[in-house]
Amino acid sequence: MVLCCGGKRVWVMLATMALVCVSTIVGLWVYQLTSFPPPTNKWDHYRLPDTLVPERYDVALWPRLDPDADGLYIFTGHSTVRFRCLRDTNLILLHCKQLKLSTMDSDGHLVKLTALRGTPPAIRKTWLHEPTQYLVVQLNGVVKAGQDYDLHTEFSGELSDDLEGLYRSEYTEDGVTKVVATSQMHPTHARKTFPCFDEPAMKAVFHITVLHKPGTLALSNGMEIAIEDTTVEGQAVTKTTFEPTKKMSTYLLALVVSDFDHLASLAGNTSIRIWARKNAIIQGHGSYALNVTVPVLKFFEDYYNISYPLSKSDQIALPDFYFGAMENWGLVTYREANLLYDPDVSSNRNKETTATIIAHELAHMWFGNLVTLKWWNEVWLNEGFASYVSYLGANRAEPTWNVKDLIVLDDVHRVFAVDALASSHPLSSKEEEIQRPEQISELFDAISYSKRGPQSCGCCLTSSLSLCSSRVSKHI
């Protein structure tokens, strides 16, 4: 009995100690989460303040397709962003990531500020704030509401193979290894190429110039308007200047330097070009994409009742590409397998994938590019709509396929499996819940592209809304 009672006392003591330990840990955890005030400095917030808005960028980039003495591939460039001040402020914040900025004056400041009218305030201090990926410019005075200013930077960066920002892609053709400089700015990688206001609502006009190795060609969002051979820093280069873009978000900017070839056609006054490796073009692997693009563009012009807003529609197949495709305005980038079609070895499923992906990306030329989401918390609206109308566009190009029937198999059933997992997430979030770049990237999944839940959202919501609209119109 005594030993039994003593044993009970020991167990009671151990249980009590365990509860105390757990309570202490929970208490410390709660204290850490609640005892620290929110950041007070604006550069500690992930969202840009609403004091400045960009109007235009003048960007010149020079990607090196050969390694330097240290074996590194680099790019250099300079950028001038013109912005308008909405409210007086003594602080300028731009996004900047993994760039080495040159000093612009004897005080070691990383930027040069000029005013279109009058004299700008003196710069007090500049630095790169890595936690939130900002270039911070503190001023001794204030920039004035209603006035325009130019902010100039010069920089260099690594042309790495990480598939982000301006990056390097390599492939082998005829036994020769070739290097391509290409880009993926979406969703938050433009800041890795040049300092910018890297948020989707911060639209501006882009004036792009690219210096590149003689014998290569450069592509960007706008049509090439001037190509000249020149010498820069003692090196022979080709300088390509592009027409200004429409007003657009930074994530839609695109650049490619390569020795690719292309197929071309016209859709009304719009130039259609399919770019790929020379051998792929010679073997006709881009022909199907060219044949699909023309009727799909015409379909969306009728569907939206808005003419295609650009002078050209380039689509390019890349050897290394993270996403299946990206809707850069005027220069859509693809994985090779999603744009090229070889009738000798490709399957019918490959052909259907090429048609629907082309339709998906071209749908974004209006819904997403011409009209853009304010913030990334509503990605489903952009991608869900494009997923739905991609079947409509592909159906116009291939009317005998009954491709619209595949929406249930390819989207609804696919997302059922994903949405059943504990890792599923709400379709729409509050703006303040999506702040960091990694949170933004996580949203691009089957839920945002294809979900149909209790609220009938995503791709299936747009399908349901279209059906309801059709029925209401017929009833009226």
Which parts are unreliable, with pLDDT below 50 for 5 consecutive residues or more?
1-5, 452-458, 461-476
Q: Mean pLDDT, nearest integer? A: 90
Residues in β-strands, percent: 25-35%
Helix count from the secondary structure assignment = 10
Q: Classify the secondary structure makeup into a structural class.
A: alpha+beta
What is the CA-based Rg, rounded? 26 Å
What general form does the structure show? globular
The CATH topology of the domain at 43-259 comes to Immunoglobulin-like
Q: Give the C-level CATH assignment of the domain at 43-259.
A: Mainly Beta
Q: Helix and strand string, N-terminal first?
A: HEEEEEEEEEEEEEEEEEHHEEEHHHHHHH
State the CATH architecture of the domain at 43-259: Sandwich
Helix content: 25-40%
Total number of strands: 20
GO biological process, one term: proteolysis
Pfam families: Peptidase_M1, Peptidase_M1_N
GO molecular function, one term: peptide binding
Subcellular location: Membrane
